[in-house]
Each structure stands twice: as structure tokens, then as C-alpha cells.
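Q: Here's a chain of 113 amino acids. Please give me its 3D structure as C-alpha cells.
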Amino acid sequence: MKIENTKAQMRKGVLEYCILSILQHGDAYTSEILSQLKDAKLLVVEGTVYPLLTRLKNAGLLEYRWEESTSGPPRKYYDLTETGRLFLNELNSTWSELVEAVNLVTNKKSTEK
């Protein structure tokens, strides 16, 4: 088993949560979302993010609008819907519980050795 595959799967598992968290602070276009994910060392490519944004939009968690750009083609800005905000609140709770549970398990193992 290669560690890089496992690390990539762990990152993919939290991408939805991270994207929704980015958008809770206001609308953003895909390049801005990618930039924030890359700054956080989540190493994401456009080919991963576009289908995920479409899936979140189709689920009613995101909406978008087109806006003209002075430096190129129009940009698609994504924003959370009210349903998306409620969903993110649930994910925040779940994430906190998960972090606590994982810390309990991993810290317990390290102290038992």
C-alpha cells in the first residue's frame, strides 16, 4: 500500500467540507477556491473541484451567478444556499466529534506503548 494514495483519499474525504467552509465567508469563483485549498496544502486540481462544485450545486447546497471580468471571460461565482448553510452547520458538529474521536483513539494508542 502506498502512503500517497491514502493521504490523497483522506484529503478528498474532507474537500466538500472545506469548500463549503470557504464559501461561508462569501461568494468565490473556482480559482479563488482552488487557491485557498492549495494554500491549505490540500493539493487539489481543477478536474477534482469542478465536478464537486456541480454535485454540491445539484444537491441544492450551492448556487452560482455569472459576473463579467475585466481580465477575461465571465466568471462563475459560487455561494452557499440557506440549505448549504444548514448543511455546513451539521458538518461542523460532525467534524468536531470526528476530530475528538480520532484524537482519543490515536492519543490512546501512543500513550499505551
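Q: Can you summarize the key feature?
A: The longest strand covers residues 72-80.
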